Amino acid sequence: MPETKIGWAIDAELVSAIAGHRDVDYIHACPRGRWRKAAANPARWPQAAAALRDFAGEIREAGYEVSIDAQGLLVSALIPFAAGIKRRIGFAHRRELSHLFYTEKYVSKAQYFDPHRPHAGHMLALAGAIGCAGADHDIALPAVAPHVRDGVAAMLGHGFAGCAPLVAIAPGTRWASKQWPAPYWEQLLEMILNATDAKVVLIGSGDDAPLTAQLARGRDRVLDLAGKTSLPQLYALLSRVPIVIAADTAPLHAAGAAHCAHLIGLYGPTPAARTGPLGSPDIRLLSATPNLSCQPCRRPRCRFATNQCMRAIAPSTVFAEVVRVLRSLAGS
Prior knowledge:
Rossmann fold, 6-stranded parallel β-sheet, about 40% helix, globular
């Protein structure tokens, strides 16, 4: 459907994640964070309602004929309804009563939460409702400007000398239940630095900076860039490094979309078969062996306050994958 014009309603703080994407014609920056704060105060509910109407009006003016709600929550379902889009496609799982605002519903609750069905397939099912071929798709990030790529190259050149392979590690997570213990990250770093000539780049958001600073402290061949890169710079970085190690977080999935050659994912509360990254030719997803009886819990916090599913992934297991990849790189 090459003539189709596509718009994307996305949280305002994430606009830079998709700005300049070749397939997105319009971007609608949704101030959902402000709505959430207003909704917490009954005195501000009229303001929240007015802001929602204004945003829906912006989308209405674009004249969309169909909407696809790939998030499947109340607010994301309500926006196209309020914008008056006649054909509204969404999931049939009934989360947060979202189904009440769709004209067409696909993917049952059992299918949606099946730990063995890739979540990307759920989204493709929605796209299939308007005639898109599910098998004919590609994973791609927005184009990165040459000056941004040059800046990242200079950043790496300033931090490192020589041409040893780079390993990018994203140790932070938003969900506490996905957090691999800091001592495990330290052990992995020591193994890499002592047994290989690889150099390590630590990446993440500003929230991850205290952890990455702890990991980088006193260690040579470790460059801490957490909170120091824009999203376009991160995309440029991920396209340069051959190995990325992370839990089930945005950097791991962005690395897949950047077609990073080798991904090593650490999975605990989320099912790897459902939410694994796409796009890379070599993806190894590690989890507790055998899985714990509580996996996958899909909870932001461990109900037992142990994070045992993440602790069961030994640093030596992750390092073995790093060694495998480094040997393949040396032989290529």
